[in-house]
Amino acid sequence: MTRPRLIVYLEEMTRACDEIGQFIAGMSKDGFLQDVLTQRAVGMNLLIIGEAATQLADVYPDFAADHPEMAWVEMRGMRNRIAHGYLSINLDTVWMTATKAVPDLLFQLRMLRQIHAQGE
């Protein structure tokens, strides 16, 4: 039996958040700004988060509407910015997203999984 796509999207977002955390663990902002490999890895995972959030909101609009605490629009916007504006991405914004928004998102995703695992 295949898992519902909703669960797959949430798992992909969670995995991408975890990877971002691993990639920047122990790294300073200056180190990030000098490390193109980490910049690309973080950017790709932000793109994955945004794509999964976009698909989730498109396929499960009721779920997205039931969880307005999630930054669906912002995740889509970040995905679009990375996918279409890759030559002019603001690395300060990427760093801020990776260090502030992603940990918050990871917490929210884990809370969603707990709520839905309990059948609410």
Count of alpha and pi helical runs: 6
Category by helix and strand content: mainly alpha
The whole-angstrom Rg is: 15 Å
- Give the overall pLDDT as a whole number: 91
- The helix fraction, in percent, is over 70%
User: What number of structural domains do the residues give?
Assistant: 1
Which runs of at least 5 residues are low in confidence (pLDDT < 50)?
none
What is the strand content?
under 5%
Order of helices and strands: HHHHHH
> How many E-type strands?
0
Shape: globular
Calculate the terminal CA-CA distance, rounded to whole Å.
Answer: 22 Å
Largest beta-sheet details: none
Structure overview:
With 120 residues, this protein is an all-alpha fold. It has one domain (5-117). The chain has 6 helices and no strands. The two termini are 22 Å apart. The mean pLDDT is 91.
In short:
The chain has 120 residues and is mainly alpha-helical.
Question: Which helices and strands occur, and which strands form pairs?
Answer:
Layout: H1 5-24, H2 29-34, H3 36-59, H4 61-66, H5 72-84, H6 91-117
Relevant terms:
120 residues, mainly alpha, 6 helices, globular
